[in-house]
Specification:
Strand order of the largest sheet: 1-2
CATH class of the largest domain: Mainly Alpha
Low-confidence stretches: 306-310, 399-406
Radius of gyration: 31 Å
Oligomer: single chain
Strand content: under 5%
Length: 785
């Protein structure tokens, strides 16, 4: 039966691998081989309708761009509206101006009577729901666009009838528009988008001369890269540059007009890299990611070398903060000021707070960019505080308010980001969350709709992510069963004392890093971690001083003949693991690391014995003395260094020697010890033991325990930033990059276990995460694009 089960498992693996590789090849061909920027950009019904309204200069009784008129005719939703819908298929608030503009375009050319009738029925049936129920504080863009589209529709002969109970709400929107028109200039420095970019919506009473329009045309002939505004500008001025822009747009985007043109190609590519990484697919697209980020960095260096005008554009902050995080995570030397420039401008900060709905997505990226903060980067601390404040403000909005009427799922994404720090999250579970919440084709609020990238919702990409995740789950289930059998066979699950954490430990190791499917590292680390947990409990709780001295001596000599009972079980399991690691390394790398492995383990057992001797003798060490021993007894190096020998490139053999550890290893040893001590001081205090928190309190009796915790947290924060810099940046000639990233993964495991409580010692707190990581299939329903 066992042989049959193994055969079926490996046959299933081969089939899954084949399917995954086929999808990878298709996606590489589709998204990277023939990169067509505008095939990834969702069309805007509102902007397309405006281009459909333009009369042909030579035949004013005909549309200049009939293809767009046909698009309007053929892209009405079944429910009668044009524009976007929410996750349930219901119209979002920008469907109102989009539907009105589309009906005006059809009415102008005397076609689509049935479409217009259906559109009017939609407006009359849904305007109350969309306005009254979803209207709380009117967004600036809606206050500008909606009244203008109502007036334009009525002027075109469309019969709009608002119910009496809604007239007050409509009047308020018109009043909001009037206030905006009275208070803002055509192009205010700190208003984005500026009023002039809404030129197609401004009333005839608003005095705009041709010179105002022509003065603000871009070099490409557009008005603020807005197709709808440029369409109106062309109708008002007949300007040749405007026409050239519109003709170029039609040639480039024949299947609907984007809400911004031209788009930033690098922004699209950066978003694609981010999407691939967050879906857990980076391992399949390493070359493509490296090429894109290299190109982005070249652009970054060019911009860094010359002064650029700082434009208050959400798209720019969105791109710059996202690029900063991606580049820094890949080892590029980038400065926080590449996206933190807005912090020095009080007027900009006030504007962003006042118009937070325009900046939610940008602030989300800013907040995530500040995860990768190094020591002394105070601008990132300020950016984190500011972006968190704006995101928390967003969270207070109900799901029917301005921002969330368009993308309610974003509420969950932001909540996840704010509630659990990146350092305490495991990659595998983060990938699952992103797959299940993958509705983020929306990037930021534009003029009259949202900018969306359809490539972020590519169905093949999501299918690949689901298959890849569930394939990993099948591997993890198989490895966990093997691990459970091993632990039971060696007697480690029935010791009669301490913590049985086989599943917890494997879950943490499998979920913390995206290792190759066939990596030995997961089981090497999990087996070692089981031994560490059992042995640590034996030294803490069960063993007599004599038994512990005998076990430590046996590890020193690597000879367990004189041992019995629990000590014998621990040593035999340890010998099995160390021998297995050494044998694998000899086979794969051609060198014998047996002595180095034994030395590391002896160092760890020696630290446990030292701590037990302190406790039993009543000796109270100094903080420095304690930390020196505690960094070893936490045993994270005992996991990280042997495992690093199986990465590519692997850890050099000479780096395994005790007392000669590199800075990055010492930092992960210190940070994990301090994390543990912050959450375990109460447990230690109850049995009369010391840890770093309690030692500081003893040395500073005038303070209280909260002062001591704050002191340790401050040290921990500094060391985490230092560790992050060592891991991410090149120039520290200590360990190969994959080995350093594994060090960071171990810190994240400890941060997960000890972030706000001691989850490691809990019995059930992690069960839901374990189920999601290993057992429960992805909750994802394929959607049509």
């Amino acid at each position: 039966i066992g042989v049959c089960r193994s055969f079926c498992f490996f046959a299933s693996m081969e089939s899954s691998l084949s399917s995954i590789q086929a999808l990878v090849n298709e996606i590489k061909e589709e998204l990277f081989s023939t990169f067509d920027l505008y095939s990834f950009v969702s069309p805007s019904s509102y902007d397309t309708a405006w281009l459909a309204m333009i009369p042909n200069p030579k035949r004013p009784d005909r549309p200049m761009f009939k293809g767009y008129l046909d698009w309007v005719l053929n892209n009405q939703n079944d429910e009668g509206f044009w524009g976007e819908s929410d996750l349930d298929g219901l119209p979002s608030i920008d469907a109102l101006p989009a539907t009105l503009a589309s009906m005006v375009a059809l009415k102008r050319w005397k076609i689509g009577d049935k479409n217009i009738k259906k559109g009017l029925e939609f407006i009359h049936a849904n305007v109350e729901i969309l306005l009254k129920e979803k209207y709380h504080s009117c967004p600036r863009w809606f206050a500008i666009v909606f009244p203008a589209m109502v007036e334009l529709a009525q002027a075109s002969g469309l019969e709009l009838v608002f119910p009496d109970e809604l007239k007050g709400v409509v009047s308020n929107v018109f009043f909001d528009r009037q206030q905006i028109l009275e208070m803002e200039g055509l192009v205010d420095e700190y208003q984005y988008p500026p009023l002039l970019s809404y030129v197609e919506t401004l009333p005839s009473t608003y005095d705009i001369g041709q010179e105002d329009i022509l003065m603000h045309l871009s070099g490409d002939g557009s008005l603020f890269q807005s197709p709808s505004a440029t369409a109106r500008a062309f109708m008002a001025t007949g300007n040749r540059k405007c026409m050239d822009y519109l003709v170029s747009l039609v040639q480039r985007c024949p299947n609907g007009v984007p809400s911004m043109y031209p788009m930033d190609e690098e922004l699209i590519k950066v978003c694609m890299v981010n999407q691939i990484q967050r879906l857990g697919l980076a391992e399949h697209f390493n070359e493509e990611i490296a090429e894109i980020l290299s190109q982005v960095y070249r652009t970054y260096k060019k911009q860094e070398s010359r002064a650029t005008k700082m434009k208050l554009v959400p798209a720019q902050i969105y791109k710059d903060s996202l690029a900063f995080r991606l580049l820094r995570m890949h080892g590029y030397n980038v400065t926080p000021w590449s996206f933190c420039w807005f912090l020095d401008h009080e007027e900009i900060l006030l504007h962003m707070e006042k118009n937070s709905e325009y900046f939610t997505s940008a602030m989300y990226n800013v907040y995530r960019a500040t995860d990768v903060i190094f020591s002394g980067e105070y601008e990132l601390e300020k950016a984190r505080s500011f972006s968190r404040k704006l995101l928390e403000k967003t969270m207070k909005l109900t799901s029917i308010d301005n921002n969330h009427a368009m993308f309610p799922y974003f509420h969950r994404v932001i909540e996840h980001e704010l509630s659990l720090p990146w350092m305490a999250r495991l990659e595998h579970l983060d990938h699952r969350m992103w797959i299940e919440e993958n509705k983020l084709s929306t990037l930021w609020i534009g003029k009259a709709s949202f900018y969306r990238l359809s490539c972020l919702h590519n169905e093949k990409l999501i299918q690949l992510a689901v298959e890849n995740y569930e394939f990993r789950q099948s591997i993890y289930r198989n490895e966990l069963e093997e691990l459970k059998r091993w632990a039971k066979d060696w007697g480690l699950t029935e010791m009669g004392f301490g913590r049985e954490k086989t599943t917890y430990l494997y879950f943490a190791m499998a979920s913390c890093a995206t290792l190759p499917y066939n990596s030995d590292v997961r089981l090497i680390v999990a087996k070692s971690a089981i031994i560490i947990t059992v042995a640590d409990d034996f030294y803490d709780e069960e063993g007599s001083l004599h038994e512990l001295q005998c076990l430590t001596e046996a590890v020193q000599k690597w000879d367990g003949k004189g041992l019995s009972g629990h000590g014998k079980i621990i040593f035999d399991a340890l010998d099995n693991v160390a021998s297995d690691i050494a044998e694998k390394h000899l086979h794969q790398q051609g060198t014998d690391i047996t002595k180095s492995l034994r030395d590391i383990w002896y160092e760890t057992f020696g630290a446990w014995l030292t701590e037990t001797t302190w406790f039993k003798s009543g000796h109270i060490p100094s903080k420095n003395e304690y930390l020196e021993t505690g960094m070893t007894s936490i045993a994270v190096h005992t996991l990280a260094l042997p495992a690093s020998c199986f990465l590519s490139p692997s850890l050099p053999n000479y780096k395994l020697k005790p007392a000669q550890y590199e800075t990055v290893t010492k930092l992960v040893m210190a940070t994990t010890r301090l994390l543990n001590d912050i959450q375990s001081y109460q447990k230690e205090q109850e049995v009369g033991k010391m840890n770093f928190v309690l030692l500081h309190l003893k040395e500073n009796p005038q303070g209280d325990i909260e002062d001591s915790i704050a002191y340790v947290r401050d040290i921990l924060d500094g060391k985490k930033k230092e560790l992050l810099e060592h891991v991410l940046m090149d120039g520290f000639n200590d360990l190969p990059k994959p080995c350093k990233h594994l060090h960071l993964s171990f810190l994240k495991v400890f941060q997960m276990f000890f972030n706000s409580s001691n989850l490691f010692d809990s019995k059930a707190d992690l069960l839901q995460d374990i189920m999601k990581a290993i057992y429960v299939p992805i909750e994802y329903q394929p959607q049509s694009i």
